[in-house]
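Study this:
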Amino acid sequence: MSTDTISRRDFLIGAGAVSAGVFLLNQEILADAAAAPAPAGPPVGIGVIGLGLQGRDILTALGGLATASVVAICDTYEPYAKRALETAAKATSFTDYKKLLEHQGVEAVIVATPSHQHKQIVLDALAAGKHVYCESPIASTVDEAKEIAKAGLAAKQVFQAGLQLRSSPLRKHVFSFVKSGVPGAIGQGRAQWHKKQSWRRMAPTPEREAELNWRLKKETSSGLLGEVGVHQIDVLNWYVNQLPVAVTAFGGIRKWTDGRDVADTVQAVFEYPEQLNVVFDATMVNSYEGAYECMYGSEAAIMLKGERGWMIKEVDSAMLGWEPYAHKEKVGDETGIALVANATKIIAQGKEPGKEDVDSKKDALYYAMEEFAAAVRGGAKPEAGPQAGYAAAVCAIKANEALLNGAKVTFQKEWFDLA
């Protein structure tokens, strides 16, 4: 069948074709199927522990789901709980998470406290028979991350690490392109997070202000590499299907000279087998170009930004057969093919993929909550299980150690072992 003599719609839905383009389309259909409705059953009764900025974002995401119901919330700081009740008006409020775990309506808990407070809460929740979603990094030290991950592996309940980018339909969809070799030989990878902000929070008392600013102290925080970088570092590990063998990191305080001892600007170079390097950089000094991940292959580069993705082909790369029919957009100085996770559904609605606005209410966090609720009701296991959550934590925490010590860290295989 010649792709020159058929319409784009016929090409996309035609049966029996055996070209590489249709192979990729099949991967796209599988990605669409992965976003199928959750198993039938009543909404999952959820308790949210930790009601700071992330906790409130979680409540907002859960509020958009028919498959989940927030029945309990918990924070030791009463004003946070009071504000959270504006979003989760029907929830019972607690100041002691152990009391929340006794609530009969709570089937699953989401732990959104500061990272250094995760361990005991997660262990107690699993011991109480609750399903657990633990924000990432799952801990601020490797030892505590291992305890959490081992408990998650041993539990009969669902344990999902908060690597929300793994729940993104776009990233799942694009992974099929990478896995099938479309980019060619990967020369390098890159990810960045640029956002001008201080992380410093104000409070009525010095004691409360110290509690709020835990991210600014190396005793309680793994810094930008751990608290932010863990998500994108995980995506790069996932896409190259390998774990790093070494990491070198650099950084410092370039703007926010306010008494913190956590860098506001960092760069890390992760070394993988076969001389593949991946770079991550983050800064709180400037917002230019925001956050994205990019894989640079011999046939094409693939860039992911938010819930949008593009493939930018090299001029000498072979034709796959379907590119002429794909929607194209400007990506910097280049033209990229828009990679759309739900293209088949959009076509079925008589619309054109790539030209539809992304639903701003359905970001990666929303999809992570959706995936968690579905798994609790007997759906597929989360992509970000205990092993993935632990490996990402090890990579990010050790990268931060390389930064703090000014020395290259060589990863030991046993660091990733949960046996």
Summary: Residues 44-166 form a domain with the Rossmann fold fold (CATH 3.40.50.720). The first strand starts at residue 44 and ends at 49.
